[in-house]
Amino acid sequence: MQRYLFNFLLAVEQVAVNKLRSILTALGIVFGVGAVIAMLAIGSGARQSILDQMKLIGVNNIVIESLPSDEMDKAEEEEENDNSRDDKAPFSPGLTLADMQAIQQIVPGVELSCPEIVLSTNIIYNGTQIKGRSVGIANSFFELNNLQLSKGTSFTDYHQKMASPVCIIGGNIEKRLFSRSEALGSYIKAKNTWLKVVGVLEAKNASSQSLQSLGLRNLNDDLYVPTNTLLVRFRDRGQFVRQLIGRQNRNNEVENIHQLDKITIRMEDSEKLQASANVIARILNRRHNGVKDYAIQVPELLLEQEQKTQDTFNFVLAAIAGISLLVGGIGIMNIMLASVLERTKEIGTRRSLGATKTDIVQQFVFEAVFISFLGGLIGIILGVVTANLISASADIPTVISAWSIVLAFGVSSAVGLIFGIVPAQRASELDPITALRT
After folding, report:
1. Which phi and psi angles does 62 have, rounded to 5°?
2. C-alpha separations of 76 from 71, 262, 285 in Å
3. What are phi and psi of 290, to 5 degrees?
4. Where are the beta strands (DSSP E) in 233-332?
5. Gyration radius (Cα) of the chain, Å
6. Contact present, 288 and 93 (Cβ < 8 Å)
């Protein structure tokens, strides 16, 4: 142990004496370790972002969204190869509750389903008015979207059947309207209907970028009512007649004739998502008389494809960072080989004073490992700082994990050990007599 310690101290002394050479030798390791940590942080951040998005949309979900009439016309025009159109175009009733019931009855493996009806309304309480959305939902909505209630209870079957004037509010509505009073049991006015607050939704944090990329609303800003309550007490768009299709309202917006804005279906088996989506498409195509006034999406499959693409990108980044470490290791070996030639007389002197070949090997290996060790420490600091700068300046999520630091540090030490062996062996093979004459 004393010989090991003595050889190690000699190696540290040589590094301290030749500061500039040691720093230049370690630069390759510094940038290699920094690149590894920064690239892994970017990859982990992207993966975490995708996982967060999957939590937002739920697992094994199929989303059916209604298309406004102008988008429906565009979809039909793309499908037609000629300009000829029948004067009597087929009529579609739009997305309705009957569609959801048909899907539940026909498609096997449906675990949960939930309709959504979204109406823009003014929400009033105690003389304060805010703009918001009234969303008609079933109780399954909260489970499908991984939502919890911070206060109160969810809707009962009685609320749904009797179209009771009750509501559950999002966390942001509670903050804006009930900062000085208790929300539960209070009555608020949405459109022309007074509603009793029976629950408050637990705040769900999500970045605006994630919501926008997935086409989701901020669920904290909505007011939720039972589906029948919205259809009976607010508005049932399914009551529109064919002559009103395409009519513009006061805001020059085309009237929406769909009874529902969205239907979310959760399947029991994730492997049958695409097949189930194809069956649903056939059901809706038949029920809507061939009119493509809906869009079917399988968000999980899209996100899985995005994750595969991201993993490939991360592999490329890791390979580039690994090449940087390899170049740094080659640099260490070159400098150490040159150092052997410069220090031939020193090696001969040590051998003449009783040092063995093992001692010479240990000294040069310790030097290489120590340089790599210092380069790894500096590289870790550089990688962490770089990852934070990227996250702050480019708005790219980064996650610095402990295992990435350990991996980069372990690789840097291994590089010093591996690439230091050849110069150390070369130094130990020098003839002491010849070395002293140099």
Report:
1. -120, 125
2. 9, 20, 13
3. 80, 5
4. 262-267, 294-297
5. 34
6. yes
Q: Taking the CB of residue 390, how many other CB atoms lie within 10 A of it?
A: 17
pLDDT tens digits, 316-345: 777 776 777 777 777 777 777 777 777 777
Alpha-carbon gap, residue 362 to 6, rounded angstroms: 10
3-state secondary structure string, 337-376? HHHHHHCHHHHHHHHHCCCCHHHHHHHHHHHHHHHHHHHH
Residue type, 384: V
Asked whether the beta carbons of 365 and 424 are under 8 A apart, the reply is: yes
Q: What is the pLDDT of residues 266-275, one digit of tens each?
A: 888 877 888 8
In the structure encoding, which two tokens stand for residue 192, read together?
Answer: 């022309």
Q: Which residue is listed with tokens 């901020």? A: 218
Read off the DSSP letter of residue 232: I
Element holding 101 (H helix, E strand): helix 97-106
Burial 395-421, CB ≥16 within 10 A → b, else e: eebbbbeeebbebbbebbbebbbbbbb
What's the residue count for the chain?
Answer: 438
CA gap 7, 341 in Å, rounded: 19
- Amino acid residing at 106: I
**Range from 47-56, 68-77, 258-267, 356-365 that averages highest in pLDDT:** 258-267
- For 76-100, letters b (16+ CB in 10 Å) and e give eeeeeeeeeeeeeeeebbbbbbebb
Q: State the CB neighbour count (10 A cutoff) for residue 104.
A: 12
Taking residue 65's Cβ as centre, other Cβ atoms within 10 Å add up to 17
The helix/strand/coil state of 197 is: strand
How many whole angstroms separate alpha carbon 259 and alpha carbon 43? 42
Q: Tokens at residue 188, please?
A: 């608020």
Q: What is the DSSP-derived secondary structure letter of residue 431?
A: -
The string of DSSP letters for 120-178 reads: EEEEEETTEEEEEEEEEE-THHHHHTT--EEEE----HHHHHTT-SEEEE-HHHHHHH-
Quote the tokens at residue 144: 């499908």
Q: What is the DSSP string of 18-30?
A: THHHHHHHHHHHH
Q: Is the pLDDT assigned to residue 118 strictly greater than 80?
A: yes
- Band of residue 158 on the pLDDT scale cut at 50, 70, 90: very high
**Are β-strands 187-190 and 166-169 bridged in parallel, bridged antiparallel, or unpaired?**
unpaired
- Cα distance between residue 125 and residue 360, in whole Å: 84
pTM surpassing 0.85? Answer: no
CB 351 within 8 A of CB 435: yes
